[in-house]
Amino acid sequence: MKEATFVIIGGGIAGVSCAEGISFLSPEESIILISSSPVIKKVTNLKHLTKLLSEFSVEERSPDSLSETCSLLTVINDSVTSIDYENKIVVTTKESIGYERLCICSGASPKLIDIANPYVIGIRDTDSVQEFQKRVCSSKRMVVVGNGGIATELVHEVEGMEIVWVIKDNHISATFIDPGAAEFFQSSLVKSDEDKTAPTKRMKFSLSNAKGSTTEAGGAALGPDWHSNVDLRGILQQKSTVTVEYKSEVKRIIDHVEGKNLLSEDWPVYVELTNGKIYGCDFIVSATGVVPNTSFLDGTGVQLSSDGGITVNWKMETSLPDVYGAGDVCTASWEPAPQWFQMRLWTQALQMGTYAAKAMVMSILGEELLQDFAFELFSHVTNFFGFKVILLGLFNGQGLNNEYEILLRVTKSSEYVKLILKDGRMQGAVLIGDTDLEEMCENLILNQLDLTPFGEELLNPDIDIDDYFD
Ligand SMILES: Cc1cc2nc3c(=O)[nH]c(=O)nc-3n(C[C@H](O)[C@H](O)[C@H](O)COP(=O)(O)OP(=O)(O)OC[C@H]3O[C@@H](n4cnc5c(N)ncnc54)[C@H](O)[C@@H]3O)c2cc1C
Ligand SMILES: NC(=O)C1=CN([C@@H]2O[C@H](COP(=O)(O)OP(=O)(O)OC[C@H]3O[C@@H](n4cnc5c(N)ncnc54)[C@H](O)[C@@H]3O)[C@@H](O)[C@H]2O)C=CC1
């Protein structure tokens, strides 16, 4: 039987950063990484924008490429089928592997609205993007269900199609942004070019009187800009049109025969929405979140959280002895720092993988572990509708029970800045466009300075606010 001091399940960002972390801290220990996917995901071009915000590329590499940084690492391309935690053995389809410490980084899979319907697809890995591209290039209309990261990206990227976007909420991209930011992006939905103008709004208001807006296992998940090298063009010779169906869900999916009778239009498949409308389309994208890959743990009694993730404590330990978890597969179940919470994102997969490595190495050495600084503040940088989007801390007032103030500055088609303040102290920020405010906001959230004396000047575009804090 093969054996290693450290065994890792998963070749996504969490698993690979865990292997690299162990090799860095304990280069003389053996590591086996088992992954169902033949390629591994490696973080490259890491660029720190601030202490906690970082941008990076994610590359698909052959497992051999890891030998540069991890000399005692063996990568096995196989699927884990079960774990015998009492005897410290991982069972794959071909063999059994012994461990001293195990880290589960098996990621998540798309949670589809109808897993059995061939017209419903999800997007997660390279294979699923190829399938998506195949559908797009021969289609006129798709229905996109969901209002998170994938739906937001697709609606912007796909050309030459009619897109019907079905969302439960009353504004777009609700997983990430507030109604005000959604309004800022709204012009991008009609894909027109607007002039950049001077700031149109700069105001301070409390939430209550804010106007209108209150403010199983496939490959590893895709990397940033996954769509940039994929031709996502439908068969219509025009820009895509987007029809948003707000506050609605898919009530049922209707087959070709019944749908044609109901609608007198000929489409491969139809959806009936909870608002009573029926749309025919070529296919349906279910961008409705993820479900952690844990089926190989059935029968172990491992503690799972209500979202299906493996419960982990602040040391990334699961409820099974010497078994750790990191990335999308796990649910952070410790008392978080006031401005941190979990979202299933690259940055957190990287941070958790690296930190789990440290926790496992410290536990073997019997040394004390301290909580990582990365878990002090939620931070995320991404790109929506062609704009840089930075989210810091409680960027949507999460957990503040609507008891906060918003400072807002909007320059149409250029920037959207929203700061969340409670008792004069900054709790979170949404920075869209090239605002250059990320460092200041990060510092102000971390140091909890009383900002009452600055008032609205904090967002005065004519004042270099950094001068105040030098
Ligand atoms: C289309 C798309 C776009 C995204 N865009 C962004 C973005 O812009 N920014 C961002 O921060 N996040 C983004 N994400 C989320 C991000 O990709 C994930 O949070 C992150 O990659 C999770 O990494 P992970 O290592 O935990 O899991 P995964 O990447 O899912 O890796 C899991 C690994 O485990 C392996 N595995 C699973 N089960 C087994 C088994 N039984 N045996 C052996 N191996 C197994 C898989 O093959 C895979 O190698 C996006 C996700 C998708 C799908
Ligand atoms: N730029 C970024 O940061 C991106 C991040 N991602 C990440 O990848 C993962 C997968 O992305 P998404 O699938 O977009 O998940 P998500 O968690 O971002 O969004 C899921 C959306 O689906 C909705 N939903 C759930 N069940 C539904 C149902 N039955 N009917 C209608 N709507 C339903 C939710 O309300 C939510 O709007 C997530 O972890 C996400 O954070 C994905 C793409 C881009």
UniProtKB/TrEMBL annotation:
GO molecular function, one term: oxidoreductase activity
Cofactors demanded by this protein: FAD
InterPro entries in the record: FAD-bd_OxRdtase, FAD/NAD-bd_sf, FAD/NAD-binding_dom, FAD/NAD-linked_Rdtase_dimer_sf, NAD(P)-bd_dom_sf, Rubredoxin_C
Sequence ranges assigned to domain NADH-rubredoxin oxidoreductase C-terminal in this UniProt record: 383-447
Pfam families per UniProt: Pyr_redox_2 (PF07992), Rubredoxin_C (PF18267)
Assigned protein family: Belongs to the class-I pyridine nucleotide-disulfide oxidoreductase family. PYROXD1 subfamily.
Keywords: FAD, Flavoprotein, Oxidoreductase
Organism: Riptortus pedestris
Name of this protein: Pyridine nucleotide-disulfide oxidoreductase domain-containing protein 1
Domain FAD/NAD(P)-binding: from-to ranges: 6-189, 239-353
